Amino acid sequence: MPHPIMYAKDHYVILCPGQEEEFVTAAEMLERLRAIVTEHPELLPRQSPQLPPQDEMLQDLLDNSCELSWDNGNWIQWYAVRLES
């Protein structure tokens, strides 16, 4: 049976155009996504009583996607990485 560390999502690598790759914790990655959707709220569905709060939407985005793109060809990609063997 695989060790649980194989499925841990504690760290991410971020790729953005024209920038070096950056390694961040899961909390830092969520804050990065929060900053992007705060500046570009159209990237998330509009809030309604049927939709989960923004924090849950951000966590879902982090867990189930790996890229966001917005106006003028800007984008960010993120991938879970394991920093320990």
List descriptors.
globular; 29% helix; 4 strands; 2 helices; 85 residues; alpha+beta; four-stranded antiparallel β-sheet
Description of the structure:
This protein is an alpha+beta fold and 85 residues long. The protein is 29% helix and 25% strand. The chain has helices spanning 26-39, 54-64, and strands at residues 11-15, 22-25, 67-70, 74-81.
Which helices and strands appear, and what pairs or packs with what?
Blueprint: E1 11-15, E2 22-25, H1 26-39, H2 54-64, E3 67-70, E4 74-81
Antiparallel strand pairs: 1-2, 1-4, 3-4
The helix content is 25-40%
Dominant shape: globular
Radius of gyration based on Cα positions: 14 Å
Report the total helices. 2
Distance between the termini: 16 Å
Structural class: alpha+beta
Query: How confident is the prediction overall: mean pLDDT?
Result: 83
Q: Largest sheet, if any?
A: 4 strands, antiparallel
Uncertain segments: none
Q: What string, H for helix and E for strand, traces the elements in order?
A: EEHHEE
Strand content: 15-25%
Brief account:
With 85 residues, this protein is of the alpha+beta class. It is built from two helices and four strands. Helix 1 crosses helix 2.
